[in-house]
């Protein structure tokens, strides 16, 4: 008779943790979907970029993404955000969906998919750097240790011969850095919006803003699409439907349920998946020098993240 009360007291104690555990698992699953789809996007951009210029490809991708997301928003009858949230949404649309896509599309005409993914992988370091300036969080010593490593990797890749001549690769590195910078700024802007606006609504509106930003490329898109084969057009539709509509929504879902820093760590998986997909789909593998540079980039991000977490815990304990 002594075992029965023990069972009864155990069951309610474990029950409250179930919703939190379920939320954590859903956030992890959403992050995993995002990582795989974003990794495949580097391959899709590289393939479609042979027939569609950077601007037209970005516009095609965003139009498809906006159409898919708009359908989802209409089905769910999502309410419009408050007036105070619109400036941030517009900024995300211009930076993350507009500038990021055009810059990355242009970069992948000069560097292969795996190299581009490694270069954009420095975004988490830039994210901490931007937070230090914009949010006045300062510049902790861990950041100062990781930052030189990441930028040394950028220089190594810029000096490599992967994807063509050194000059063109240099421009490709610069454009990947612009894309990473746009991505980092957008995460800082997006995070507070998620407390008031649903991930799906933010993604739809930002994607639509990005499409409007890219409308000047519409004549070129019509012209190039008329001469393109089915494969580049299929890649453009894929990029809009999955890496844009689905992946940005799952990213926003995960970001609303975890910290930007922890979620940023999952992006470490994008470069190796992109390299693998680039080899399987396109037969491309970054040169050894570019791989070394990519490892340096990601090592700098890891050092910043790991040391920054320890530094934050020690600082908090000392208060």
Automatic annotation (TrEMBL):
Recite the UniProt keywords alphabetically: Membrane, Transmembrane, Transmembrane helix
- Regions annotated as coiled coil: none
Entry keyword annotation includes Membrane = yes
Q: Which SUPFAM superfamilies match?
A: Multidrug resistance efflux transporter EmrE
InterPro entries the record matches = Alkyne_AA_exporter, EamA_dom, EmrE-like
Q: Which residues form the EamA domain?
A: 33-158, 171-304
Enumerate the Gene3D superfamilies for this protein: 1.10.3730.20
Bilayer-spanning residue ranges? 24-45, 57-75, 87-107, 113-135, 142-163, 169-190, 202-221, 233-256, 263-282, 288-306
Pfam families from the UniProt entry: EamA
This one is known as: DMT family transporter
């Amino acid at each position: 008779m002594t075992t029965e009360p023990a069972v009864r007291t155990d069951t309610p104690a474990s029950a409250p943790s179930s919703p939190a555990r379920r939320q954590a698992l859903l956030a992890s699953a959403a992050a995993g979907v995002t990582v795989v789809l974003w990794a495949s996007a580097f391959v899709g951009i590289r393939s479609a970029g042979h027939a569609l210029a950077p601007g037209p490809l970005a516009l095609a991708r965003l139009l498809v993404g906006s159409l898919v997301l708009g359908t989802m928003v209409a089905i769910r009858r999502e309410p419009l955000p408050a007036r105070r949230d619109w400036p941030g949404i517009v900024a995300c649309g211009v930076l993350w969906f507009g500038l990021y896509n055009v810059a990355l599309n242009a970069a992948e005409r000069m560097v292969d998919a795996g190299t581009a993914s490694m270069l954009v992988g420095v975004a988490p370091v830039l994210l901490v750097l931007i937070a230090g300036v914009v949010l006045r969080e300062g510049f902790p010593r861990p950041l100062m240790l990781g930052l030189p490593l990441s930028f040394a990797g950028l220089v190594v890749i810029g000096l490599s011969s992967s994807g063509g001549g050194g000059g063109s690769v240099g421009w490709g590195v610069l454009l990947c850095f612009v894309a990473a910078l746009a991505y980092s700024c957008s995460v800082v802007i997006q995070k507070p919006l998620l407390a008031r606006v649903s991930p799906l609504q933010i993604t739809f509106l930002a994607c639509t803003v990005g499409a409007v930003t890219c409308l000047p490329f519409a004549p070129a898109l019509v012209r190039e699409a008329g001469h393109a084969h089915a494969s580049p057009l299929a890649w453009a539709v894929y990029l809009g439907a999955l890496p844009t509509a689905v992946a940005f929504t799952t990213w926003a879902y995960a970001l609303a349920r975890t910290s930007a820093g922890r979620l940023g760590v999952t992006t470490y998986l994008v470069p190796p998946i992109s390299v693998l997909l680039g080899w399987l789909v396109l037969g491309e593998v970054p040169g050894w020098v570019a791989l070394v540079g990519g490892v340096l980039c990601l090592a700098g991000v890891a050092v910043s993240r790991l040391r920054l977490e320890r530094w934050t815990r020690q600082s908090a304990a000392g208060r």
